[in-house]
Amino acid sequence: MAAGDLFVEMECRQFTKSGQNACGDDYQLLTLEKENRSIAVLSDGLGSGIKAHILANMTTTMGLHFLKSNVDILRSVETIMDTLPICEVRKISYATFSMADLRLGGITRIIEMGNPQYIQLRGTTEVPAMKHTRIVSQRWPDREVDCFETRMEPGDRLILCSDGVTQAGLGQKKFKFGWRRSGELEFIQKLIARDPEISAKDLAYSVAFQALSITPGKCLDDISCLVIYLRRPRVLRILTGPPFHKEHDREFAQLGAGGANDVIVCGGTTASILERELQKKTEIDLHLVKASGDLPPPGNMPGVGLVTEGILTLSRVCSLLESGQTENAPMAARAILNRMHENDVIEFIVGTKVNEAHQDPNLPMELELRRNIVKRLTSVLETRCRKKVVVRYF
Amino acid sequence: MEKIRLEICCGTTCFMLGADKLMRMETLLPEEFRERVEITGVPCLNVCMEESICRAPFVRINGVPHAQATVESVFEEIRKLLEKEEREDSE
Lengths: 394, 91
Known about the structure:
The complex is a heterodimer.
Chain A: E1 2-3, E2 6-15, E3 25-32, E4 37-45, H1 49-68, H2 73-83, E5 95-103, E6 107-113, E7 119-122, E8 125-126, E9 131-136, E10 144-151, E11 156-161, H3 163-166, H4 180-194, H5 200-214, E12 223-231, E13 235-240, H6 249-254, E14 262-266, H7 268-278, E15 283-284, E16 299-301, E17 305-308, H8 311-323, H9 331-342, E18 345-350, H10 370-383, E19 388-393
Parallel strand pairs in A: 13-14, 13-18, 14-17, 18-19
Antiparallel strand pairs in A: 1-2, 2-12, 3-4, 4-5, 5-6, 6-10, 7-8, 7-11, 9-10, 11-12, 15-16, 16-17
Helix pairs in contact in A: 1-2, 8-9, 8-10
Chain B: E1 4-9, H1 12-22, H2 25-28, H3 31-34, E2 37-42, E3 59-61, E4 64-66, H4 71-90
Parallel strand pairs in B: 1-2
Antiparallel strand pairs in B: 1-3, 3-4
């Protein structure tokens, strides 16, 4: 989500308890663009495996809905408790949770029940809550709900986690009481000191992986770390297709020369226009052919960025994102996917001139129209990857 | 002796019509040829438009475009150029 110059990056990384095929923790993220609001809910279901996952998923689904609809906290929690099925073994219904409701320029609320307390960091300094209240339900007197209010400033991070993180290593000589919140906090502070702009994705992964590594070879509990990072957006600009009017070539090419954190040129003709207008030369290492799968190998234009083939590569990126299976992507598609993940705003600069060569009847398959691919990419990037997408036609 | 410059188009149409094989040219050339040819990839040679349409894939050898290129036709062209060079050197 971006408001003015700010972007809320939300990412979660999980590891599943060894021997289980479903994670007993669940999370859901929601961006309410019109309200300048971002919501994150993380829940840890009782036990592990499928049963725990269902409990956690029911909790995150209800929590997200109640939070979004501004339902009273106590009523929300009681409804969640009343709804969760009762465990046959333990005779209780239970799932702990942490919910964060961030409003840009306003108050951020964190509601927790049973989960380790959240961490808010400004740089490496922990920020205490402005207000803390504890609510106890009369129907569920043993369940205490902590409500915190804080203000998120640009650059702040909010870290939520399940007890699989804070209790990692429990019982080991070095971690008698587990890694604990203090160990996690110290680890995160060191990471931020080393890399002050570490992304939410990398931070969540580092924390979860560290918790996993404390007990080598085995994951003793489901591990989840969710990070919310409020920061200036990183912009990836993708230029694809030649402009409709040749006289716009210069203006089009200039967009590849600056004004974004990362630039990708998708298409041979597009790259040629930039080469001509910016006096640059693309370097393509043909030794990469073996490793580049069934797509042409990527190249590099010094001072601009990555250069790839156009339609085939973008179509593949789109299919990979739509299917959610981005592993084993061919080299050029992988390079684009990595850059998309690293940036918050994806800006497509689309040239609309029809490429005559694509009408060659010898081509073994029909090439999809560039505009259609960009339309599909916009949809999948906005809905599944929570990116802000801007499309500009030339 | 100057190396022969072989540029292979990596554009969509060329790639789909056979340039993927041409990109592996370096491994297909005999060793004595390999040292005398410099092979590079180019995003697009821009020769597939207008009158050349339907004649992909394209390569450029020492600046001269060649249409409907195959590994065999490119190899043959390189061989001719190398022979010509040798003839000129011996004269």
